[in-house]
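Thread: Newbie trying to understand structure tokens

Hi all, I'm a second-year student working on a class project, and my supervisor (Dr. K.) asked me to get a predicted structure for one chain before our next meeting. I've only ever worked with sequences, so writing a 3D structure as a token string is new to me. If someone could post the tokens and maybe explain what I'm looking at, I'd be very grateful. Here's the chain:
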Amino acid sequence: NLWSVGSQVNPNEYRILMAWIFLKWLSALPPRRLEYAETRLLTKAKFDALAKKTGNYVVMGKRKWTWNLYNFKTVDKYGPAIMPVPGPLKAALNKFRPIINAKSDKGFIFLNNRFRPLSRSQFSTFVSWVFQKYANKKWTQNTIRAIKVSSVWKPNVENPLKLAEDMGHSLETALLHYKQ
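---
Reply by user tm_fold:
Sure, no problem. This is what the structure looks like when written as tokens:
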């Protein structure tokens, strides 16, 4: 019952909450590379006040929340990515928000044992830990991305071009990872 502990969660408890939010994220949006590591939770006013937008942000508007990505591998080719945050993920992040704000004054969601932002390398290790612990699988973020890409090639499932755009890669990359 970690919600009753609230902002007093210890690093191990925070890690469990991060796993929950990460799995919610994967179920709500197409999987990205490791951009989650640098994602911050900001109000619209704080986001608008940023002089330069170079990171990744979940922007909490009054009605609409968006995931704004300015730091990812193919940003130079495709430009910033802005995706709506679906209701279930929005509700989960909103529930987690007081704890995030208590542990990170800049709103970083994914934190290490000292409550500092995870590096992409640390986030990759975290992803492996999540799938080993909760699914008993040795999966990485690349595995999750390949599974998602493979799933859309079934008839009438999802638009592969839209998925490639949302995942930040080309259709050629999707074809490279397609498996029967």
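A couple of things are worth pointing out once you decode it. The chain has a mean pLDDT of 90. The chain is about 50% helix and 10% strand. Feel free to ask follow-ups in this thread.
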